[in-house]
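WARN  no MSA supplied for this record, continuing single-sequence
INFO  ligand: zinc ion
INFO  echoing inputs
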Amino acid sequence: MAIVLAIETSCDETAVAIVNNRQVCSSIVASQIPVHQQYGGVVPEVASRQHLETINWAIAQAMEQAQLNWGQIDGIAATCAPGLVGALLVGLTAAKTLAILHNKPFLGVHHLEGHIYATYLSETTLDPPFLSLLVSGGHTSLIYVKNCGDYKTLGQTRDDAAGEAFDKVARLLKLGYPGGPIIDHLAQAGNSQAFALPEGKVSLPGGGYHPYDASFSGLKTAVLRLVERLEKDGGQVPVADVAASFQETVARSLTKRAIACALDYNLNTIAVGGGVAANSGLRKNLQVAAAKHNLRVLFPPLKYCTDNAAMIACAAADHLSLGHTSPITLGVESRLAL
Ligand code: KG4
Ligand code: ZN
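INFO  complex generated
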């Protein structure tokens, strides 16, 4: 199985891509961010409608950019879980229709597996095992990648995902949506040591703390209380300093857990994925810590950190080459463990 077309519509990007194994032939990402910005976040019904209006155009664009005809496509895939149900249905139904129409094997892909595979698009010779740090708007996980389809989740967030924390803090600082890139940009001009914020820890029943699980909701509340206090004192909120202190706390928490996990499991490579992998604070923290421990840390190019279909196609190409396919009756799931 070599050439795969995949569709990704789990949230607010209508994405279609074609890969030849780990080589990207085309990757179209039609972002809905400007549409959702006016509501301050993703509105599920609006997302579904936007996907429906854009999907055929995106498929045609992907085919045209790759300069391929349907006879050259070996398989069709789409994200089937987790995500917004209506949004997922648009992509999955489109993929099934194409598979039936052109008589191709069909495969549903887990969104997080796609984020794991994003690393392969730039590191085409990377082989498992390695540790995947997935940090997106919906997930924060440390995953032991043993092989294609063989994953073990070693750590996760107990409440907000890292990207969700960025988005919520940006909202309370009245900065707009999505919050991650805005906070990242503002943090460059701020002092990350200006405010000491609590790094969330997850207690273990027998005492002590979970070494890999994270918690971000307490941190978000701490930022809220800090802003309230600063406002009450009548002064202007030093937004860049708050952003930088918050970003530093998240980056430190993720770095500490990822490094501990990689060392404990004897994995010398950490592959970061998901939208928050674009964060400059996390990149810096993790690179410095990894170098100290002689670990390799890999970040996909920014365009493959956030949601895209090339990562889904890459995962599908591996599965299809192993003979894995999905029944055409496959449904979507809003929540599904990897
Ligand atoms: O992976 P992704 O595109 O979608 C999900 O699967 O959730 O991640 C989107 C998330 C959003 O929460 C966004 O604020 C965050 O990634 N994000 C960032 C940055 N760029 C995107 N967070 C921190 N720093 C960034 N530079
Ligand atoms: Zn994602």
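The CA atoms of residues 107 and 324 lie 8 Å apart.
INFO  checksum written, moving to next record
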